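Teaching assistant's notes for section 4

Start the section by putting this record on the projector. Ask students to predict, before seeing the second block, whether Probable proton-coupled zinc antiporter SLC30A3 will look compact or extended. Collect guesses on the board.
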Amino acid sequence: MEPSATTGGSETTRLVSPRDRGGAGGGLRLKSLFTEPSEALPEEPKPVEMSFHHCHRDPQPQLGLTPERLQAQRQLCAACAVCCIFMAGEVVGGYLAHSLAIMTDAAHLLADVGSMMGSLFSLWLSTRPATRTMTFGWHRSETLGALASVVSLWMVTGILLYLAFIRLLHSDYHIEGGAMLLTASIAVCANLLMAFVLHQAGPPHSHGSRGAEYAPLEEGPGETLPLGNTSVRAAFVHVLGDLLQSLGVLAASVLIYFKPQYKAADPISTFLFSICALGSTAPTLRDVLRVLMEGTPRSVGFEPVRDALLSVPGVRATHELHLWSLTLTYHVASAHLAIDSTADPEAVLAEATSRLHSRFGFSCCTLQVEQYQPEMAQCLRCREPPQA
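Reveal the predicted structure now:
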């Protein structure tokens, strides 16, 4: 085949017969393919590597659960399995012993199983990517799972408090001291095992932006960043409350075993230690409500963040400063920075973003740079919010 003339930057070929190959001397011409230059194609744009101050702190978004959440998932699965086994044993033991206190402990374990299953579901849900409807993703499902865990424990405890009150009014019940003592001893061991499984140390110190794993270099005065998964923390608080109640039930079972006439210790222990279990959930409920109400992260102060932004060279004023959290460890910040006319906006943006990430551990920062105007000092919307 030989090439024909090209038209419009494209080339065509035609077949060459054997007769066309002969020359004057009978020699055979070698077939060759000539390509005429065509129009140059536009080069594809090469991906540009963004500088350090760009909003994307990680090269690529992480897929699936982070190592911290994988650890939380393993802890919850192990604790849930232990909880189910010993809950079944407590139900049988409480029925044989006719003990409301044992059944109370079993009901608390049932509430723990439900809360742990809800936490596992919220961990799975949090891996879903962000959408145009859920632009922040599903991180806050972890906080909702912790809230459901606390509410479920309060509901079950309220029912058991009512039953304990009825038993205090009426004495028509019998307690098997031996069965109660054995079951209470097993319950204490079960709660100790679950507390060991759910106990979590803080993740290693890191200077990179890794979402929930991030540990800041500088915190607010006198405060530390709450580390660990929220759902695991709520489950751990549940187990501590159950352990306290189990110890009380064990003490009551010892008393009833040796002094059967003091069977009222069964509903009394249920009443007292259920109240303690309710009180143990108060810190978790406070933190969950702070997240849901878009409150400033507990480990970050408004004034230190404002001062850090004002200390950036070229920044004259800052307003519309907002600090909130998606979870206890996923912090978000946004602000307007008013700069001098001679300042470099890109340099200001780079320095301000770097300080927010490195000093306070914000996982997401949105900063708007604008020219400073004298009337900003009198603008009502540009004023700082008052103290709570």
